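Reviewers of the previous submission asked for a worked example of the structure-prediction workflow described in the proposal, so we include one complete record here. The input consisted solely of the amino acid sequence. No template or homolog information was supplied to the procedure at any stage.
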Amino acid sequence: MKTIFTLFFTLALAITGLSQITISQFTGQSVSSHDTHLIWKTMMETKIDYFNIQRSDDGMNFENIGQVDSKMSMNTNSYELNYDFSDANAVPGTSYYRLQIVSRNGFSNYSDVIQISNRQIEGIKIYPTVISNTNMFVETDKPIRNAKLEFFDLSGKKVGETNWEVLDGRQSLQPMSNMKAVATGTYVARLSSQGETIVSQLMIFQTH
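From that input alone, the workflow returned the following structure tokens.
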């Protein structure tokens, strides 16, 4: 099964006062259980040296898995540049990817994070992925004992938790009602049982 995640955005990054870049598209496609292909487009690159491709299995702790040099040079006049990278050692399940953009003087900044699943987790759903002072749902087709749903910000700090002695069927909850001073942004929802992670998913909380 192929899962395609395409993130269309315009992310303008000022790496330093002299280095800048705009990422107009960041796309990931799972082509097999151990192979993920990434594509990104940039505009108006100025003094960018290379891109570190970083991967995470929880959306918080990233590691470098490859490097792609900038295509911009003194002889390059293209307004938009296209890049790609193949993760030939992708892990089954859900992975998170981001780009570390490194300038020629050593300063760096990061792209947004994209989420790619190369194996459908049967029978378990956490939805919707965008929460705006509304309920969210956890759904499972079989009982899960000692289930725990935790929420973390992208620095790894836990901001909320819900527990069930037995999680079965569809459960409704209001995650933001149990969180303290949660700002609008991206968080990680992690469902576990007996200390073992079952599913990890990015969520976007929109506060008012």
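The mean pLDDT is 82. We consider this example representative of the routine output the project will generate in years two and three.
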